[in-house]
Amino acid sequence: MTQVGRFLPLLWLLTMLPSWAVAGDKIPGDTPCTGQITYQSDKDDAYKYLENLQRQIYAQNPQLADPYSRAEMNQPRSVETMTELKVRVLKTCPDPSSPVQCAFKPDVIDRIIKEFSCRPLPTRFESPFFAVLINLYTTELDKVRTNHFPESPITRFGSLPTGTFDAQAILPPGSNMPLVILNRDIFFFTGALSKAIVDSIPIVEEGKSVHLKYTEEAIRTRLSDHAYIVHNFADAMSRLVKEGSSSGATEVLLDNDHNQLHARLVAAMDRFLISHEEAHVILGHVSDQSVEFRLAGSHGKGTAVKLTASKLPRKLPTNDLTLKAELRTREQELQADALGFNLMIWSEEVQGNRLSESVSGAAPIMIFRVLDAANAYGSEAGGWTFSDSNHPTAADRIKALSPVFDEVAKTSEPLRESDFRIPFDAAFKVLLEEADPGIRQNLGLPSKKTK
Questions:
Q1: Phi, psi torsion values for 422, nearest 5 degrees
Q2: Which residues contact 72 (CB under 8 A, 6 or more apart)?
Q3: Pairing verdict, β 179-183 and 156-160
Q4: Measured distance CA(8)–CA(98) in Å, rounded
Q5: Domain range for residue 251?
Q6: Could you give the CA distance from residue 187 to residue 270 in angstroms, rounded to a whole number?
Q7: How far apart are the C-alpha atoms of 371 and 246, rounded to whole Å?
Q8: Would 266 be classed as within a structural domain?
Q9: Total domain count for the chain?
């Protein structure tokens, strides 16, 4: 697995976004821009809880840590200044003289360093890249939250190798601030799958107009002419089922038209996943009731991760492979889908990009379509599955969002003008059919019987 394969989605998203998006405002009361790094985990109980949890998991399972977290394990608390942070980040690039193998360009690293020059990092194990990407979305979402729900609490975000893309909002011990734990590889998931879906749709230019051709025949022709699209989609889906993450999936650079569409779909998928969890907090779905959820390496037939009971943080269960997350009902999940959809669209309206707002309307459906397909393959192959008794099926969630879309569209002209659910749904259907033989081969499953 090359570093460029692992980090292309993050690199792409950072370079596509405008410079103001990673500038960030200084947090009141924090240390001025002195070049010294501060950490939220030093004074915030929620992040302190997360940092302790990250340290224990990564210490006992170093294969689950990203390069940045592994460096912290090898040299604890060795990064105190922005200069030292830059050196550590640069080491994630195996050979700076080889652009093909280099995960991050120096100018992108400089922008990330600038993001944290006047604000603290979340924890000592949270990759700055992950933190920057989360900030890109939560900054705008927090403005929407403050405007529409001023009494709701601020939500903290952090990552763990949870092995499932159903993130969880919890109330950490000793803290009254909710903490949303996201899968560490969330951006690899959205990046790889969004790219394949978008690349499946023929885009034609006629004069000054650009059109999407999304008939089944047109999509199949494009996939036949560009076999790499099917191969890459099968690779990403197979990794998701076998490893719980599409990290490392093969990717390619898209042409400008497809890249512009991909930029908007992947950002909307990210934003919906985050806004869904924000919605749980706003709706008061964080309580002292709990249910188990899994760490990476644990699936239908796997037991890769082991947590030592004597070293677990308080209020964590003593059995292996699990942490405690909040107990939710199917109705609560549908409520969070609905409010999360509204938060996502309101956030797009604030930014004022009509095309992005239109594309956002299809983002939740694409997420649910992908997870539904991965769940079916995982159930058959004994790999990762992405559903449980507390969550509605993908079909039920898509059906429940239809009236929500219609209601939001009453005040969203972009949604009324362009319904991107139709072309993306068509592309996913054909792409999955074409990729099925490759996915089944990768997973060691028998070929489907033809009628």
A1: -70, -55
A2: 78, 79, 124, 125
A3: parallel
A4: 15
A5: 189-272+331-442
A6: 7
A7: 12
A8: yes
A9: 1
